[in-house]
Each structure stands twice: as structure tokens, then as C-alpha cells.
Specification:
Layout: E1 4-18, E2 27-41, E3 45-49, H1 56-63, E4 71-76, E5 79-80, H2 86-92, E6 96-99, H3 113-124, H4 130-144, H5 160-172, E7 178-182, H6 190-207, E8 210-214, H7 218-224, E9 227-232, E10 235-241, H8 242-247, H9 252-259, H10 302-306, E11 312-315, E12 318-320
Parallel strand pairs: 3-8, 3-9, 6-7, 7-8
Antiparallel strand pairs: 1-2, 1-4, 4-5, 9-10, 10-12, 11-12
């Protein structure tokens, strides 16, 4: 990995939600993303994990400006994306692509596979002839494991795994620098998940891609990521290298997530810490004061309910937002 490609600083995405009352309506802010900061190096994969509703997908879309942030900055290739107009941002999108969770729903059912994969070429490489564009599409189809006969077929004729290969080919056809993967394997069978993950890793090596990989599956994140960011209620709880996070998690929430991963062994090690969280997840419309995790944390003290912990360095490869981080 070389220099820095992406920098996100204090990013917030708040949605105004109308409250009850017809005579004088009131609005509250739903804090989907509430002050996220991280950097991404060239060739690096950052995994983002957390429970459903923690803001992972909103963050992914805000990085690409598919959702405009309420505040904060996203700097890509040294340029502030939030300060760009629509035309300048469109030009930057050549280097920023996204792979979506639902492979079939993300594909236009009216277009053939060849047209779907070639669409970015028509948008960004307008000087290509039809023959050259078809050559590039067929070359990319081969790289992602699609047979030549698929070129003139339509998305509904394919399985979920094959549709995701089509989506990956569409994202990769213009050789982007950054690809955001928003739970790209969660709708697939386990055996197909492994194939798609290995395909993404092979393409990353070949093209020198940087990946932001959003998932709720820690096993998948552990396999593909160089670093992992743990989110809870729109905030960062912990950022660490993959090996450091899984071998020595510091935040209580991280430990709870790792403990919830099913063990392949019938009898877990007796030293394995089992952390059980209360079932009720607070609403981002009214997050807890202080540390947003304190209402579900077994180690919370009075300080946790009144003072929000700042993300701080505990080691060269570990940052934690916790007043009482564990070993």
C-alpha cells in the first residue's frame, strides 16, 4: 500500500424527521452518521461492520456523494468532493464506483448484459468505437467469470451470484481507483460468497484498487480487510488492523460482535469471553447521552453516561472510543 487515497473528516449525515402534531409540526434529527473520520490508503481494504441501522450504508453513499453530507469533508485524490458541482463530481465518478447489496435490483432489466457492463464506457470513454467497446466488455466478462454467451442475455436469466459478477464487471470496466462494496455478498449462498470475495481480492491485486467493504458478517470482513472500523449508532467505536482487532479487541462492543460469530467447534474454548447485549438498540432519533453504547455496556460507569469518549490511539494500529478500553 502506498499513499493516501481517501480522507473522511467529521462526516455527519442527519435527516430531519417530522414529529407528531398537526398545528405546529416539530422536527428532530435522525443522526444516521454522526462524526465519522478515517483515512484510506491506495490498495487498502477497510472493512466497516456493525449492527443493522448503525449507519454503514448511509456512510458508504455519503462518501460517493450519493447522499449529501450534513457537514464534514470527503477528500478523494486530494480534492474536496463536497465542494464540487454536479459536472465536476460526475467526472470524478470514473474513479469511484459502487457494488450494491441486491445484485438483481441494481441491474437494469431492460438492458442486455453487454449493454449494462458497457454503460460506464459510454459515459466516460465516448471516443471508443462500438467494436472497441465490445472488446473491452468481453475482456472484463472473462475476468469476472462470465461466459461469452452471456453478452446478449438479460439479468433475469442469471442466478444471484452471476448477477453480482455482472455488477462487479460494470464497476470495474473503467478501472476505478476506489470501489465501495455495500454488503455485496449478504444475499448470496455461502459457497457463492467465497467465490465473489476471492474475485474481488484478485481484481484488487490486478488493478491496485482500494476497497471500502461494508458488511455485518465479521467472518467475511476478516478474510478481505486490511483494517476494520466498528460502527454503532452512527459513530466509530474502534478502528484497528484486522489482526489486532480480532486477536485483541479493545472496545466492549467489538468484543460482543466477535463473541457472536458462530464457532466452527462444537465446544468453544473455555477462555472465550461470551458477551451478551440487551436486545433493545437505541434509536438514532434519540441516542443516549455520553457514550452512545453505555446503555448496553456491562462495564459502563457514571462517566460514560455524561461524557462522550473521543477516538484515541491505544497502539500504532488501534484507535478506540471508550473511557475504559479492555486489553
Amino acid at each position: 500500500m502506498s499513499g493516501q487515497l481517501l480522507s473522511v473528516k467529521d462526516l455527519k449525515v442527519w435527516f430531519p424527521v417530522r414529529g407528531e402534531g398537526n398545528l405546529r409540526p416539530t422536527f428532530r434529527d435522525l443522526k444516521a452518521v454522526d462524526g465519522i473520520s478515517f483515512d484510506l490508503a491506495e490498495g487498502e481494504t477497510l472493512g466497516i461492520v456493525g449492527e443493522s441501522g448503525c449507519g454503514k450504508s448511509t456512510l458508504a453513499r455519503a462518501i460517493l456523494m450519493l447522499i449529501r453530507p450534513s457537514s464534514g469533508t470527503v477528500t478523494f485524490l486530494g480534492r474536496d468532493l463536497g465542494g464540487m458541482g454536479a459536472r465536476a463530481l460526475r467526472t470524478m465518478r470514473r474513479d469511484m464506483q459502487m457494488i450494491f447489496q441486491d445484485p438483481l435490483a441494481s441491474l437494469d432489466p431492460r438492458l442486455s448484459v453487454g449493454s449494462i457492463i458497457g454503460e460506464p464506457l459510454r459515459a466516460f470513454e465516448t471516443r471508443l468505437s462500438a467494436a472497441e467497446r465490445e472488446r473491452r466488455v468481453r475482456e472484463m466478462m472473462d475476468k469476472v467469470g462470465l461466459l461469452p454467451a452471456a453478452f446478449d442475455r438479460y439479468p433475469h436469466e442469471f442466478s444471484g451470484g452471476q448477477c453480482q459478477r455482472i455488477g462487479i464487471a460494470r464497476a470495474m470496466i473503467v478501472r476505478p481507483r476506489l470501489v465501495i462494496c455495500d454488503e455485496p455478498v449478504s444475499a448470496l449462498d455461502v459457497s457463492i460468497q467465497a467465490q465473489i470475495i476471492n474475485l474481488l481480492m484478485d481484481l484488487q491485486k490486478e488493478f491496485g484498487l482500494s476497497l471500502v467493504f461494508v458488511s455485518h458478517d465479521l467472518s467475511v470482513v476478516r478474510h478481505i480487510s486490511h483494517r476494520v472500523m466498528v460502527m454503532y449508532l452512527g459513530r466509530v467505536m474502534e478502528i484497528a488492523s484486522r489482526d489486532a482487532l480480532f486477536s485483541e479487541p479493545r472496545h466492549p462492543y467489538t468484543r460482543a460482535l466477535i463473541a457472536a460469530v458462530p464457532s466452527p467447534d462444537a465446544a468453544p474454548e473455555p477462555t472465550t469471553e461470551r458477551v451478551r447485549l440487551p436486545a433493545d438498540l437505541p434509536t438514532p432519533l434519540d441516542p443516549p447521552s455520553g457514550c452512545v453504547f453505555h446503555t448496553r455496556c456491562g462495564k459502563a460507569a457514571q462517566l460514560c453516561s455524561s461524557v462522550a469518549p473521543q477516538l484515541r490511539n491505544l497502539a500504532p494500529d488501534c484507535q478506540v472510543a471508550c473511557h475504559f478500553p479492555g486489553p
